[in-house]
Amino acid sequence: MGYLLFVTLIQAFSFSLIGVYLAGHVDSYFAVLIRVVLAGLVFIPLTRWRQVEPRFMRGMLLIGALQFGVTYVCLYLSFRVLTVPEVLLFTILTPLHVTLIEDALNRRFNPWALLAALVAVLGAGVIRYDGLDGDFLGGFLLLQVANFTYAAGQVLYKHLVARHPSDLPHYRRFGYFYLGALAVVLPAFLMFGNPQHLPEAAPQWIVLLFLGLCSTALGMYLWNKGACSVNGGTLAVMNNLHVPLGLLVNLLIWNQHEDFTRLLIGGGVIVASVWISRLGVRRVPANVPGTR
Predict the structure, then answer these.
(1) pTM of the predicted model, to two decimals?
(2) Smallest Cα–Cα separation from 37: which of 195, 182, 197?
(3) How far apart are CA 31 and CA 198, in angstroms?
(4) Ranges for the EamA domain (predicted)?
(5) Could you report the per-residue pLDDT of 36-89, keeping only the tens digit for each?
(6) Longest dimension (CA), the chain
């Protein structure tokens, strides 16, 4: 869980940096493309290409395309029809997708994991619900695709590593992830990007470097590696922990107005969901039919 907590802290800073320095100033697709390219420059030289099994390679290409490529394309498209509060509200459903995909792949139903995911969604909803306006159905569907692909990527990686054990460490096989992401992000930039809105100020490039090297390279790698060491319920609820932490960072560093009472209550509910998930692991015996 340590890897997941560390990445959550990175995400907490990343959201504020994007909102302050990039949103409305730098083309979104270019920003995503730069993130993938920088991350790829870190991991591609480390990858042992000839020592990776073809099935694992194809799986990693698919995971990268889903978890980063499709997810971020849908996310940025959703901003065209949704307000920021609506985007934040609809992304809190990711834990449900993680739980359902995990149970489907394991051919089981774990009520504790589902309960923990629902509690995590409730906690994030307490923090972020600000009401809805306008015709948001299209944006809602886009974000459900993004939630699904982001959840599918991390769950599939967990299962892929389990099915294809190797003496190679994770980072020696992770370069394929960014090639898969690039296969989606590059065409998206060519089709939807606006080259008239490229970074002009030094702080914007510095933020892009941070997002590419820390959030995308280190963050995506450690998150997926951490996903392999926790149960599905814990992984699900950890997907919403960035909501209270991100708002807290925004409040303390950039002095953005947030309802501190709602932040504390919602954060406490999310922490409780982690406890429920871990309690469920102890309550559900490993030898009960249908639990694996």
Answers:
(1) 0.81
(2) 182
(3) 9
(4) 4-127, 139-276
(5) 999 999 999 999 998 999 999 999 999 999 999 999 888 877 777 766 556 666
(6) 59
